[in-house]
Amino acid sequence: MSAVNETRRPAPAPRRRPTPSEEAVIGVLRAADLFRRRLAALFEPHDLTLQQYNVLRILRGARPEPLPTMEIAERMMEQAPGITRLVDRLEAKGLVERQRGADDRRCVRCTITPPGLALLARLDEPVTRMDEELLAALDAGEARQLGALLARVCPSGG
Amino acid sequence: MSAVNETRRPAPAPRRRPTPSEEAVIGVLRAADLFRRRLAALFEPHDLTLQQYNVLRILRGARPEPLPTMEIAERMMEQAPGITRLVDRLEAKGLVERQRGADDRRCVRCTITPPGLALLARLDEPVTRMDEELLAALDAGEARQLGALLARVCPSGG
DNA sequence: AATGAATGGTTGACGCGTCAAGTTCTGACG
DNA sequence: CGTCAGAACTTGACGCGTCAACCATTCATT
Question: DSSP assignment of chain B, as one string?
């Protein structure tokens, strides 16, 4: 009576149905992957990466104050070593300037340069257009709703 | 009459209010960052990375059929080179086996090993618990809603 | 002032993802 | 049968993110 089973290969995992949480978490990861790719493609012709763009945005937001490396790291939710090298490359391209702090010589004060600002200015419109495009499947109310749900999942401060 | 401005530093950018799309896109990216970090921390004690875990999940899902590298790449929405090296490491740990295709010798057929399955089994429960935890701020209905919105933004197939 | 802890940052090593350029193999076409 | 296009990887190089270790500077304490 077990003969029919004995000739079968092991059944594929029962694949229990994913919970709503599981599905939402995977959805967030997948969507982020897609967004990252699309945004990266937008910056690539300008020899800029998504992360480099983010640093520039943050520095522009702080203007005219310079920002110490650790500040940038915090706003990007990232460890300091990554930022150091990120700013290394931006500095090499002349988009950012670094200067040891006068009062506290441990700090490195980072400032966006005029070429950096010019580059950002050229990107502002394409980026907002891309944001719209990425959420084209949702109407304005749904986009707001998505933003609101995510804001509760991940309060701005980390 | 411009004297009052001449002594001022350049005003900070007008910082136009972000659109709903902008906010939602940033929300997705931020949430994904957080999720990745939390999940990575869950796997780290087992010497596994998030991506390695994903490969194992995919291979378990395909069981008992082996999966060619390109198949894995497709399901992970990733380029082949990354997968090759990912599987290199999994193979080195004995969690995956590779074998040249008999019919088409270009293909490499990847299979999850019993130790790989055992490791996944040990992780199943902590992972679903983490998924719940990550969305603890939402009730079940909201989680479902989030999943539904994201499914429309990023249909499963890419 | 002197020492020891803490802070800000950099460097090294490693996993990961991408692109560009190979290699091996299949399959179609002449 | 020969050749040539394309598929399925594989390798090299680079940017990125993390951890651990390190240097310089500051702060606290004595």
Answer: --HHHHTSPPPPP--PPPPHHHHHHHHHHHHHHHHHHHHHHHHGGGT--HHHHHHHHHHHHHTTS-EEHHHHHHHTT--HHHHHHHHHHHHHTTSEEEEE-SSSTT-EEEEE-HHHHHHHHHHHHHHHHHHHHHTTTS-HHHHHHHHHHHHHHS-TT-
CA proximity to B69, closest of B50, B47, B90: B90
Which helix (H) or strand (E) is A115 found in, with range? helix A114-134
Rounded Cα distance between A79 and A74, Å, is: 8
Q: What residue has token string 């929300």?
A: B27
Q: Look up residue B31 and give its two tokens.
A: 């949430």
pLDDT digits (tens, 9 = 90+) for B99-158: 999 899 999 999 999 999 999 999 999 999 999 999 999 999 999 999 999 999 998 764
C-alpha distance from A107 to closest chain B C-alpha (Å): 23
Grade residue B2 by pLDDT with cuts at 50, 70 and 90.
very low
Contact in structure between A144 and B25 (CB atoms under 8 Å): no
Q: Judged by CB atoms within 8 Å, which residues 48-87 of A form the interface with B?
A: 60-61, 63-64, 77
Residue whose tokens read 């005003």: B11
Touching B: A residues 82-141, CB under 8 Å:
128, 131-132, 134-135, 137-138, 140
Alpha-carbon span B16 to B8, nearest angstrom: 21
What's the pLDDT score for residue A26? Answer: 96
